[in-house]
Amino acid sequence: MLLHFEPMLLELRHPFRLATGTRTHTKVVLTQIHWEGLVGFGEAAMPPYYGEDHETAKAFLSKASEVLLNENNSFGSSDGKEEIARIMEKIDAIAPGNNAAKASVDIALHDLWGKVIGKPLWQLLGSELEKMPATSFTLGIAEPAVMQQKLEEASGFKIIKVKLGSGDDRQLIRSIREMSSLPIYADANQGWKDKEATLDLVYWLQEQNVQLIEQPFHKDDLGSSAWLTERSPLPIFADESFQRFTDLDRVSDCFHGVNIKLMKCIGISEAIRIADVARKHRLKLMIGCMTETSCGIMAAAALAPQIDYADTDGCWLVRNNPFEMPAFGNGRIMLDSTPGLGLKK
Ligand code: MG
Predict the structure, then answer these.
(1) Are residues 235 and 135 in the same domain?
(2) DSSP state of 120
(3) Do 184 and 316 share a domain, yes or no?
(4) How far is the CA of 242 from the centre of ligand 1 (A)?
(5) Which residue segment(s) compose the domain that 184 sits in?
(6) How far apart are CA 242 and CA 251, in angstroms?
(7) How far apart are CA 273 and CA 270, in angstroms?
């Protein structure tokens, strides 16, 4: 198998204001795995706060390409899921971290698997299309006029996601409520500090038809999250507190659910393991994304029907997506019978 990779800068439609700062672009690396005349596409999306960038990804993927060079005979000959899991164990062992770079290999392998077998990935993963959850659309924090414009761009989406925790949250929600009555997912991105004040706010948010809360407190402050989870009328999800399968034990008693992102958990293979075990812990599941091209988003969408909540709007937030946008209807990504991820250039 031959691995190619190409760094790219994704431009955001609107500067993205979070509790942690403002962003205008995201670094990604697009990967291709060539095998027997077929090409699998993958992507690493690397927001700055996880410590990966073009240089680290290029260094890692150079090493990964050596591992893949020796994978010429086995892939596609037996069960693809196990084959990919086996290859990803080797990729994961190359070096710690580099989660998005690893995910770019996993996603490309899954796309390739579908193309080898001639079936769409969602079907190979056992997803049922009628269970596809609606995806939220993230409304970055902005002046009311800009928010209005963003809401118009988001028409078609049935759920709004709002980033809280960097200012007057009640005022922000009130101003959205003047423009829209859609259900809201609220993401504090670690921005809240005081437990009691947060609990008050969560009750108020529930009255505003907010349906879930993501990452209320600092990622390491699991005690506060556990306290809130015990009392909150809304489900509380771990995002920054939860990266990989090995984190499940640590967070499972502190949150109602976990936000699985392929770029955090090195791809689809591990995301499936997380979902299986998280359900045994009675955790709710959310599938999220970074700012990504259609490639990463279609990979998440293939798994999304097996997940409770979806926040897979990443490619709607970028200006220069090199792939066709996913088909979309009734607030949901619509998958079809195209083999692999179903990506169109
Ligand atoms: Mg989040």
Answers:
(1) yes
(2) B
(3) yes
(4) 10
(5) 123-333
(6) 7
(7) 5
**Residues 184-211 pLDDT 10s:** 999 999 999 999 999 999 999 999 999 9
CA of 260 to the centre of ligand 1 (A): 10
Among positive and negative, which fits the CA dihedral 268, 17, 97, 321? positive
Q: Are 169 and 179 in contact (CB under 8 A)?
A: no
70: CA distance to ligand 1 center in Å?
A: 37
Provide the 10 A C-beta neighbour count for residue 76.
16
* Whether residue 57 sits in one domain with residue 15: yes
Distance 65 CA to ligand 1 centre (A): 31
Which of 119, 137, 166 is the endpoint of a domain? 119
- Cα(135) to ligand 1 centroid in Å equals 14
Structure tokens at 196: 């009691």
Please state, in angstroms and rounded to a whole number, the distance separating the CA atoms of residues 338 and 345.
13
Same domain, 176 and 305: yes
pLDDT tens per residue across span 265-296: 999 999 999 999 999 999 999 999 999 999 99
Residue by residue, what is the 3-state secondary structure of 59-83? HHHHHHHHHHHCCCCCCCCCCHHHH
How far apart are the CA of 101 and the centre of ligand 1, in A? Answer: 20
Number of structural domains (the chain) is: 2
Q: What is the pTM of this model?
A: 0.95
Q: Between vectors from CA 233 to CA 230 and to CA 238, what angle results, nearest 5°?
A: 60
Q: Read off the CATH number of the domain in which 237 is found.
A: 3.20.20.120
**264 and 151 part of one domain:** yes
**Nearest residue to 163 via CA among 146, 193, 142:** 142
Instruction: Tell me how crowded residue 154 is: count the other CB atoms within 10 A of its CB.
Output: 20
CA angle at residue 69 from 67 to 75, to 5 degrees? 90
